[in-house]
Design goal:
Elements (H helix, E strand, L loop, with lengths): L55 E6 L4 H9 L4 E7 L11 E4 L7 H8 L3 E4 L10 H21 L4 E5 L23 H4 L4 H16 L4 E7 L1 E3 L5 H7 L4 E3 L5 E2 L1 E3 H12 L1 E2 L5 E2 L5 E5 L5 E2 H7 L5 E3 L1 H13 L22 H7 L7 H15 L1
Parallel strand pairs: 1-2, 1-4, 2-3, 4-5, 5-6, 6-13, 7-10, 8-15
Antiparallel strand pairs: 9-14, 11-12
Helix pairs in contact: 3-5
Length: about 375
């Protein structure tokens, strides 16, 4: 349930799409065959910035998704974002450099050849559980390995991989707070996310093998906001299911806090123009402000849950999933049955990160999003 974006196209930006001016004589209407699209001008550095204080040039996969669009709206002048996505970006800002390319295509090499990137942030993970297993493996494993090959070949200094606390898996034997060295058992009870576990393990292998790149793997708890994922969908329901006799601890993080965590990880230039060192390589759990029992989470978010016996809930959700009337397969009921709370002290101690959004702020964001989706 924690995945930040289910890879459905995000909404068009609230402003009209202006005529895109291309820097090179490349096709303006790039398609999925790997053609490259470049639009607009680069973000200008802050006034008086030196070469060491220039904005970090960051390639972001999956930028046209909802999480990527939120980042574009709030990104500081410390970063120059470059988008790479197989999906179209119908409302892209005119000053955005964007490549509509499938990661599995060899044309990705062209992007790295001309990119001169300071960092790569991988948001382009496929989480749509209704997609076929072959597509999941092809995108989350094969395509990710292509990205790793390019990062190594072109010696990109920093790689940030957005994984998920789902890889630990909810379970009755979980400790109160799961540390980064815990085994990844998410696919043990929920086989559909085995490719996400494989992606996390591939990133760890790359981190230890390629010493020229600072590789950081972030595992956030349940992400809520405008993103379309299982957690946001569940907490957008006015009468969500709650399993009788079960009240696990729940952690939430707002999408904007997650993006702030990514920016802290990248380093670059602080909002005041001072150089800021990025996070050293490693695996880090990321969480919002505290944890609450599911029942209290419902209360704080203003929801009125229905308490249902486990057997009845399994039957109901399985049938609804089969009829495409639900976005949750029955296996995901474990997230409202067992705890999967993470220990984020390592990340906080390394960065000083402090989330700004509390449960009341998250409730407001969910209410605003629900007004457009119900």
């Amino acid at each position: 349930m924690t995945t930040p974006d289910d890879q459905q196209p995000g909404p068009a930006w609230p402003f009209a799409l202006a005529e895109q001016s291309l820097k090179r004589a490349e096709p303006a209407d790039a398609s999925d065959d790997g053609k490259v699209t470049r639009a607009g001008n680069h973000r200008a550095p802050p006034d008086g910035a030196t070469e060491t204080q220039r904005p970090l040039r960051v390639l972001v996969t999956g930028l046209s998704g909802r999480l990527g669009q939120v980042w574009l709206r709030q990104v500081s002048r410390a970063f120059e974002l470059v988008g790479l996505d197989r999906r179209a970006f119908p409302g892209a800002p005119t000053d955005l450099e964007f490549y509509r390319i499938d990661l599995r295509s060899t044309r990705v090499i062209e992007v790295f050849e001309r990119g001169n990137f300071d960092a790569v942030v991988h948001l382009g993970t496929l989480h749509n559980l209704r997609a076929k297993d072959a597509l999941h493996f092809s995108w989350n494993v094969t395509a990710f390995h292509r990205l790793l090959e390019c990062v190594e070949r072109f010696k990109v200094p920093r790689l940030v991989v957005l994984s998920s606390a789902d890889v630990y898996g909810p379970g009755p034997a979980n400790p109160a707070y799961i540390k980064e060295d815990a085994p990844l058992l998410g696919a043990q009870r929920f086989f559909a996310i085995r490719d996400l576990v494989s992606l996390d393990l591939a990133a760890q292998n790359f981190m230890w093998r390629v010493q020229s790149t600072e590789t950081v793997i972030l595992r956030p708890c349940h992400v809520v906001g405008t993103v379309r994922n299982a957690a946001s969908t569940y907490f957008n329901l006015m009468r969500p299911l709650m399993l009788s006799g079960f009240d696990p601890m729940i952690q939430l993080i707002h999408e904007r806090d997650l993006l702030a965590a990514i920016e802290v990880t990248l380093g670059g230039v602080s909002p005041t123009g001072q150089p800021r060192e990025g996070l050293r390589c490693g695996v880090y759990n990321v969480a919002g402000q505290g944890a609450l029992p599911l029942s209290q989470t419902h209360d704080r978010l203003g929801l009125r849950p229905r308490s249902v016996p486990l057997t009845l809930a399994r039957t109901f959700v399985a049938n609804a999933w089969g009829l495409r009337a639900s976005r949750f397969p029955a296996e995901q009921l474990d997230h409202i049955r067992y705890p999967c709370t993470v220990d984020n002290r390592r990340f906080v101690e390394a960065t000083g990160f402090a989330p700004r959004f509390d449960f009341d702020d998250m409730a407001h964001s969910l209410q605003v999003e629900a007004a457009f989706t119900r």
